[in-house]
Amino acid sequence: MRKVWMLLFIGCFLAVPLMAHAQLDKILEGILGGGGERVSLDQIRVANLEMIPDPAGENQRVAFRATIVNNSRQQLRILLAIIDRSQVVSQVNDAYLQPGRNLITFPESSYRFYGRDQRCFTLDTYIDGRWVPLAAAKDFCANRSYGGWSMSETGAGPGQLSVEDLAMSPDPVTPGQEVRFMVKLKNDGRPIRGQIRIQDRDQVVVQTDSVNIPRGVSQFQLPRSQYAFQRMDTCFTVSVDIDRTPHQVDAAREYCAYPTAWTLRARARASQGRP
Q1: What is the CATH number of the domain that holds 206?
Q2: What confidence tens digit (pLDDT) does each residue in 96-109 have?
Q3: Comparing C-alpha atoms, which of 97, 88, 87 is closest to residue 33?
Q4: Where are the beta strands (DSSP E) in 56-190?
Q5: Are residues 121 and 143 in the same domain?
Q6: Is the omega angle on the peptide bond into residue 170 within 30 degrees of 0, that is, cis?
Q7: H helix count then E strand count, the chain
């Protein structure tokens, strides 16, 4: 009798994994296609996952956008969720997957970034009472970076920034007149957030509030300033304040303002009035 129970136990032990695998394969079978073609879970792959905005602050609400490839010939409708470990970040209850590439937008979430320096996400579907991760082309992780959390693969930081151009309006400017600076920045890294600052040596001329500096070339208008031009050669530098730390941005040339005219008329009149 003991041998019989032992054989039954071994048989169940071997059969359960096979039944579970079969269940995963059949759960997607012909969900919308009328049961024509059998759809395996392996035929659904995650090609890309984006976070919006990127970078995101610790207290900022985020949304996600996923590119999912359906390699079957069936149209599917499944429940999808973005998962951080065991936490559901955001989900779509009825995700329609046509054969080929599909773009699925997940609703904005109150998910908060905190603690760890890296957060990795999986895209899961709900099968037989549990979340099962879909196969993915790569790991999708958000890393702590300058100005927030980012899923971009390109490096970030002040070293990726450069000044393309710096201009002021009006130009020329008269003493006491308000002036506005426009700076064109090139960002070769991932998007960052920071305060853009114009400086004359150690003196802050004007700065912005915290702004997003996207990848590529962007132009920013700084607030108007009543900066007093005093020296013969007033040269400006651009810096970006990230996490309360200013970082000077490299420029291909100097940006200096010079007096446009000189006069001796006032001195000549004063000399004529002397006895």
Answers
A1: 2.70.50.60
A2: 899 999 999 999 98
A3: 97
A4: 62-70, 76-84, 87-97, 100-109, 118-127, 130-133, 135-136, 140-145, 148-150, 161-169, 180-187
A5: yes
A6: yes
A7: 2, 19
Q: What is the tally of structural domains in the chain? A: 2
Tell me the one-letter amino acid at 227. Y
* 21 domain-assigned: no
How far, CA to CA in Å, does 89 sit from each of 3, 107, 120, 121, 223? 49, 10, 11, 9, 38
Residue pLDDT, tens place only, 95-141: 889 999 999 999 998 888 876 668 899 999 988 788 899 998 888 88
**Which of the given ranges, 83-97, 115-129, 255-269, has the highest pLDDT on average?**
83-97
Q: Give the amino acid at 217.
A: V
Phi then psi dihedrals of residue 166, to 5 deg: -135, 125
Higher per-residue pLDDT: 94 or 34? 94
pTM of the model: 0.49
Amino acid of residue 229: F
